[in-house]
Amino acid sequence: MPRPKVGIVGAGNVGAACAFILQKRNVADVVMSDIVQGLPQGKALDMNQCRQVDHHSTRVTGTNEISDMRDCQVVVITAGVPRKPGMTREQLLDVNAGIIKDVCSKLLGTGAKPVIIVVTNPLDVMTYVALKITGFPRARVLGMAGMLDSNRYAHFIAERLQVSPRDISAMVLGSHGDTMVPLPRFTTVAGIPITELLPKEECDQLAIRARDGGIEIVNFLKTSAWLAPGSSIASMVEAILNDENRVMPCAAYLDGEYGLTDVVVGVPCKLGDGGIKEVMKLKLLPDELAALKKSAAVVKENCGLLKL
Ligand code: APR
User: Fold this and answer.
1) Strands of the 188-189 sheet, one edge to the other
2) Do 177 and 294 sit in the same domain of this protein?
3) What residues does ligand 1 touch, defined as CB less than 6 Å away?
4) Where in the sequence is the domain holding 109, given as residue range(s)?
5) Ligand 1: which residue has its CA nearest to atom 35?
6) DSSP for 126-149?
7) Rounded average pLDDT per 10-residue block, the chain, 308 residues
8) Does the annotation count 56 as an active-site position?
């Protein structure tokens, strides 16, 4: 059977990290594209030259043509401009929406019908743009943020409690921004909610640190993170290609779930063959639901600023 093929649009920090992680995990062959001539080709060559010493057989191909992704089962979109210090994700709105429209139109032109994972920020809005431009069913267009946010949350909890991050199941809902909704009640260490392990003030502080986890890195590096994003995307790609039915927080189009309609926001989803198989419904307390709705309202407002 031929190996699965994953397209990655944008060979910058996040796209290249994701390609490298997919290759290292032997998940799929990767086609990585960028508008900059030579960039994807050079990075692909560098990655392929690790194959002997790292013992993996998958290949990365660099290209400037999205048409080379016509036979990809999953396409990850990281093309866009990242944040600089002092910038919000929303300030990237117009420029990145133009890039998403361009990429999705080209992808449509190839006749491909992959599952699309949008990573470009502001990611909930960009996922909505990709859905509208492609006209794909909502199962096939989703955004990666919740996995990254819950990874960050899990890291801070693991450090505080001195437990392995592997034993933490962290739940973060809402948009990938200031209105993100970390849920301590649904965040557990070997099944024990952190609300039973830590006082409320500490749970609140950990939630704030997870929400601001991106900007903490931007302030150090003067650009946004790429390794934890790359790793989070790769886990979603694996869940889809291997039909794992993993339950992961994803930016998903909601059609009535949680009382929300016609908006993309982070919620737990069952991920497998074909993308989102089910939006999982958590029994939220009134304040948790209100926070999710507030987050969705911000995404809707930003979508309203765009001409779609
Ligand atoms: N088609 C293909 N590639 C494009 C296009 C386009 N239309 N427009 C821009 N790019 C490429 C750039 O040339 C660049 O190589 O996208 C790449 C983006 O890479 P970086 O600038 O390194 O940004 P990165 O850190 O990877 O972040 C990409 O992901 O996490 C989000 O906020 C982040 O929106 C940003 C995106």
Assistant:
1) 168-169, 188-189, 192-193
2) yes
3) 9-15, 33-36, 39, 78-80, 82-83, 92, 96, 99, 102-103, 119-121, 223-224, 226, 229
4) 5-145
5) 82
6) HHHHHHHHH---GGGEEE--HHHH
7) 94 98 96 98 97 92 97 97 77 91 97 96 96 98 96 97 98 93 97 98 96 94 95 98 98 98 98 98 97 96 88
8) no
